[in-house]
Each structure stands twice: as structure tokens, then as C-alpha cells.
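quick one before i forget lol
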Amino acid sequence: MKRRSKRYNSLKKNIIKDKKLSAKDIIDFVKKNSNTKFDESIDVCLRINLKQSKGGEFNLRTTVKLPNGSGKKEKIAVLCESEKLDEAKKSGADVYGSDDLIEKIASGKFNFTKLLCTPAMMGKIGKHGKVLGPKGLMPNPKLGTVSNEITKSVNELKNGLVEIRNDKDGNLGSTIGRKSFSNEKLLENYNYLIESIKKEKPETIKGEFIKNTFITSTMGISYKVGAR
């Protein structure tokens, strides 16, 4: 028989079933259960309605700028023309380059978590989509990673711009901060995220767009949101 840790058994006692909890109450529970030694991520998991009344399915892929940031440390790479390298350097990017950066990418060297590309360089990076795509690094205008405004875009990517994308079953997830955030900041991020997703609902989808919502932490218990 598999033995469970003391932490697991302790958390199990905090499971709450069949009770409508508000996001505010859940955030308090989740933070209290986040008793690991690292700064756990506080995450929201949702299931959305993909079925459109006119047939077919809707796919959601966008970005949301959380008002209090995500707390996640991104390592940003900027791919730009040689004449813009100085701006890229001053923007706060961790990695920057032109054709030399493309060569590193071609060799499989990925020492960054986000790749920002200027429109002029998209033609050169396009052939590496098969390598970048599966890693979630392929620049995309909808995700704020294709832009001529290098400084502004780097700042947004480093300070709370999170990507939202559903899977084939309509599930999607996003961080709303870390356990070190105050409850008020986490709740503000949560409400902003939910309202942003609701605004993405197409007119061809009838009824509730968000079916279920859960809040959890990296190593904690998941609670279903039953009231706002």
C-alpha cells in the first residue's frame, strides 16, 4: 500500500465538497494550504463552452495583462534588425540579436522563455516554426510577441502579460499570481482575468461561456468557485 506524506494527509483534511464558495474565500483557503518552502503559483482553471450555434467550435487564444502582474519571471529574447539592437539592449531584454540569434535558435539553443520578434524578421524566423512552435516560443501578433515597439512589449511580457489558450476539451488555465501576493491583489487579478475571458465570448455561442472555474496552487488543493 502506498504511503502518503504528512503534508498530503494534512491537506486532505482541508478538502471542501458540495459547498458554494466565493473566489475571495477560496483564495484565502488556497493560500493557507500553500505550505511548501517555495513561492507557489496561484492558478485558475476553467472550462469554457466551445460549441457555436452555427456549427463548428470556437478556439480561444489571446493574452491578458494582469493588473498586479503574474509574479512569474520571464526570460525575454528579442529578435530584430541590426539597427534596432541598441533599443533591444536598453529595453531590459535578457537576450537579443539579429541573424546571430537565428543561428543559435537553429542550433537548438533556447536560453529564454519568450521570443519577441519585429515584423521585418518574421520572414527569417518562420522556417524555424517546427522547432519553436511545440515549445510555445513561436512569435504571434495575437500574443504580443510580434511588434516594432520593443521597449513597450518587453515591459509587458515581463510584467503580467499571460497567455490564454484552450485545449480541445475547452479547458484553459492561467496563473493569477504567487502565494506571496496579498489576497486583495490575487482577487483583483482573478476578477480581471474572468471578465477578460467573458469578453471573448462570440455571439454565436448561447448560454454561459464559462462552465466551471477552479482555483488552486502549485502543490495545493483545487476548489470550485460557486459564487462571485
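fyi Helices lie at 6-12, 23-33, 85-90, 99-106, 122-125, 129-132, 150-158, 183-198.
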